[in-house]
Each structure stands twice: as C-alpha cells, then as structure tokens.
Amino acid sequence: MLLRIRAWPALILGVIALNGCASTPDEPDAAQVKLNDIDERLGRVERVVSNQSLLALSQRLDALESQLRDLRGNVEELQNNSETLRKQQRDLYADLDRRISALETALKSGTTAGPAGGAALVAGGGAAAAGAGSADQAAYNHAFEALKAADYNAAIAQFRDFLRLYAHSALADNAQYWLGEAYYVTRDYDDAIGAFGAVGEKYPQSRKAPDALLKLGYAQYELKHLAEARATLNQVVQRYPASDAAKLATERLSHIPADAH
C-alpha cells in the first residue's frame, strides 16, 4: 500500500509533463529537418544540371548553325564557280561561232581559197589551215576536235605536242591560241597568260593576235591583276580599233576602276 502511495507523485508528474508537451509548440523533428535539407539541396543540383544541359544544348546549336553557314558558303562558292565555268564555255563557243560565221560569209563572197581551203579553215579555226601539210593538219584537227568536245586536258596535251612537233607549221599560231583557250576555260589563268602572250611574241602578224591579246587581258582580269589587265585591254583598243576584239576590250574595261592596282 505504501508503495502504491509513493507511486502516485511520479504518475502525476508524468501526466503533467505530457500535458505540458501537448500545450507547447512541437519542436522540429530532426529527421524531417534533414529530409527538408536534402530535398532543397537536390533541387539546387537539379537546377544546376538543367542549366548545364541547356548550356550544352545551346553550344551544340551554335556549332550546328556555324556548320550550316559553312555549308551554305561552300554551296554558293560551287554555284559561282560553276556559273563562271559555264560563262567561259559560252564565251569560247561564241568565239568559235563568230569565227565560223565570218568564214562562211567569206566563202559565200568568194574571198577564200575555195571549198577545199574553206573546209580546212572551218576544221582548224583559222586561215593558216589552208597552207598546212597533211601530218600537221591531221594533228591539229585532232586537237581541235578534243577542244570542241570539251575534253580540255586532251586538247591541252595535243596542242602542246603539236607545237613541239610542228613549230614551223602554218597552223602553229592557231594552235598556240587554242592552247591558251583550253587553259582559260579550265581556269588555269597563269598558263593561259603564257599561251596567249606567246601568240603576240611569236606570231605578231597572225590573225589571232587581236583575240590573243584580248584573252590575255581577260586572264589578267580573272587573276585580279587589274592594272595589267587595263593596260593590256587598252592595247587591244589602240592596236586594233576596228576589230571585234576592241569592242569586247572596251566592254571589259568598263568593269575595271580607273585607280585599280
């Protein structure tokens, strides 16, 4: 009985303590605090990772856009090169057509050596063909056919062989000129300059001289040697004022600034 009485104060104190806990605000739970902290830290990590992913994606997009610009530039360059080549081919064929038309007119007026000579002129592209021998004529015709077929590498090789084997042929000036044309149409402007320049140096009285000088100026123009091109084209106008070459030279001169260097 005594023990039971003594136990009552402890029981009462326990109840009071429990009531006191119920009446005061709850203390933060340590586990919950840690969970909240972990959740907040995880959120920060997710935001950083998300930002890094966006940054990587943005960098990748920038790289792709740069590649796309490069590709577009390459396509435009190829298109420009293709158009330049087509223009050069058109110029070549227009020149051929102009020469053949002039020859046909001369044949009709009876100013050439006759039908046989006229056929040789058409095949060879120049008046000197009428005086050529059979071997050099055949070699020349073969090279000229390669040129007309746009087999420019073959034409270059064959005209060079012709000039080596038949340096004194009546067709040599024509071969020298068409060698320059083959170089020009393949955009080998340095060799074209050498070939066209050789026409005036070796065959100053050739009927090809005006056109060779004109194309020499064209090749210098393509290489952006504008001062040289202007001087050469002015020579065409001064030396051959009544020629078609002079008209074409005047037209090209209009595209060269007066102060070009």
Could you explain the architecture of this structure?
- By secondary structure, this protein is mostly helical.
- The protein has a domain at 88-253: Tetratricopeptide repeat domain (Serine Threonine Protein Phosphatase 5, Tetratricopeptide repeat, Alpha Horseshoe).
- It is built from ten helices and no strands.
- The protein has helices at 2-23, 30-109, 115-124, 134-148, 152-165, 172-185, 189-202, 209-222, 226-239, 244-253.
- Helix 6 packs parallel to helix 8 and helix 8 (209-222) packs parallel to helix 10.
Q: CATH homologous superfamily of the domain at 88-253, by name?
A: Tetratricopeptide repeat domain
Separation of termini?
128 Å
Q: Sum up the overall morphology in one term.
A: elongated
Radius of gyration: 45 Å
CATH class of the domain at 88-253: Mainly Alpha
User: What characterizes the major β-sheet?
Assistant: none
Short précis:
The chain is mainly alpha-helical and 261 residues long.
Please outline the helices and strands.
Layout: H1 2-23, H2 30-109, H3 115-124, H4 134-148, H5 152-165, H6 172-185, H7 189-202, H8 209-222, H9 226-239, H10 244-253
Notable traits:
0% strand, disordered N terminus, Serine Threonine Protein Phosphatase 5, Tetratricopeptide repeat, 261 residues
